[in-house]
Every structure is written in structure tokens, then in C-alpha cells.
Design goal:
Alpha-Beta Plaits; 2 domains; 5 helices
Length: 229
């Protein structure tokens, strides 16, 4: 069983002060989300989440195996069982925030080392040194790189998209304080919206919806939000 929750900060100066005092950055946000679930030292992350940048107060959507609980007082939690009926051929509106990367070999041909490159930063680098008059705009580069990344991957998740039905809404770069392994966190994310067509309902449910898309799922990426047309 899965649960879909909408969590919204309650209005009030006290709520905002407590939220801000808890610290910012994507790692601290990740820790805030963990606080909605009962303590279980044996539990691995069993949720996806997405912060919605709308309005003055923070809001999150969370898809989880455990229902979140409200022990923080400053949040309003609305939860329902998530069990949509999805069929092959269904068309759905979607919203998605992903960390789009490409994995490349490093070193010599025999090397097993790999590194991940941000697809937008990589696309920009290809035009380094090219005069502005001879290159696309940064937005055109973003749209081209973003559409290429998503269209090459969606078949693995049980759905298809057409370029004309997908909007690359924007690119954001998030930097956070060091995590518990003393690594500084840096993420590039792209927001998409549009219309998708379900091609394999079982894969779509189990992989795209329940497991999420792409990397950095622990930091607010990968949750596919859907709505009937």
C-alpha cells in the first residue's frame, strides 16, 4: 500500500520562524521530510517527495509506504491511499522534477571509473568560446538538452511523450551544506510538465510512480505527479 500526502505549513509567524531556524539547503530539507515519519533505525528511505514552489508557505507532496505523522505542529498533513487505476493507452497530465545526468567513463578505455555530468551544464560547455551571435540562447540550449534527456528515457518507465506535449519549465541549481559523510551537495534540476501516454501500465505503476525517475530521489527529485486529462 502507498500513501500520497500533501503537507502544507500552517499560516503564522511562529511557523515560519521555526521553519527557517531549522536551517535551509537541500540536505536539511531532506532531514525535515524524514521527521514526518516515525523513528525506525532499520528503515531505509521509502518515500519520494517534491517541494512545490507556489505561494508564500512551503508545501510538499510525498508518496510513501508509511503514512506521515504530524508531530511538528506547524504542518497540515492531508493523506490518502494511492492506488490509481492505470491502463495502457491512458493519457495523463504530469509534473516532474528530475536531476538529469549522463554517466561517462573517465580515464583510459579500460577504466571502470564513471562520472555524472549535468546535462544542461554539459550542453552549455559545448558552446564555450562560441560568439553569442553564432549560438542558440541559453533557454534554447536548455530546452533541447532537456527534451533529449527525457525522450530517451521514458520508454524504460512505461510511458511515452511527444516533444510538442512536453514543457521544459526551467533549470535550478541547488547547493547544500555538507551531508553526514562530509560531502557538499550540488544538484542541477529540470522541471517538466506536459502530457504522457501510458504504454506499459505495470511498469509505469511500479517503476515510474512508486520508485521515481532519475537520480537524487533523496533530495526532492523523481516524483512523477499525475492527473487525469
Amino acid at each position: 500500500m502507498m500513501f500520497l500526502s500533501r503537507i502544507t505549513m500552517k499560516p503564522g509567524r511562529g511557523s515560519i520562524i521555526r521553519y527557517v531556524s531549522a536551517g535551509g539547503g537541500i540536505y536539511n530539507e531532506h532531514r525535515k521530510i524524514w521527521n514526518f515519519f516515525p523513528d525506525d533505525k532499520k528503515a531505509s528511505r521509502d518515500f519520494l517527495y517534491r517541494k512545490i514552489d507556489a505561494g508564500a508557505l512551503p508545501q510538499y507532496y510525498i508518496l510513501s509506504k508509511r503514512a506521515p505523522v504530524n508531530e511538528q505542529e506547524i504542518w497540515k498533513i492531508e493523506t490518502k491511499v494511492f492506488d490509481p487505476v492505470i491502463k495502457n493507452g491512458d493519457y495523463l497530465r504530469f509534473s516532474l522534477r528530475v536531476n538529469p545526468v549522463v554517466t561517462k567513463k573517465t580515464g583510459d578505455v579500460e577504466s571502470k571509473k564513471r562520472k555524472r555530468d549535468d546535462v544542461y551544464m554539459e550542453a552549455l560547455a559545448r558552446y564555450e568560446g562560441v560568439p553569442k551571435t553564432d549560438r542558440p540562447t541559453n533557454n534554447e540550449i536548455l530546452v533541447e538538452a532537456g527534451l533529449k534527456w527525457i525522450t530517451e528515457r521514458v520508454s524504460d518507465y512505461g510511458f511515452s511523450v511527444q516533444n510538442n506535449d512536453v514543457i521544459v519549465e526551467g533549470y535550478h541549481r541547488f547547493e547544500g551544506m555538507k551531508d553526514k559523510k562530509n560531502h557538499r551537495i550540488q544538484l542541477g534540476v529540470i522541471d517538466y510538465s506536459g502530457i504522457l501516454k501510458v504504454t506499459d501500465s505495470e511498469v509505469f505503476m511500479e517503476k515510474a510512480l512508486k520508485r521515481g525517475i532519475g537520480k537524487a530521489k533523496a533530495f526532492g527529485c523523481g516524483l512523477l505527479l499525475i492527473k487525469r486529462l
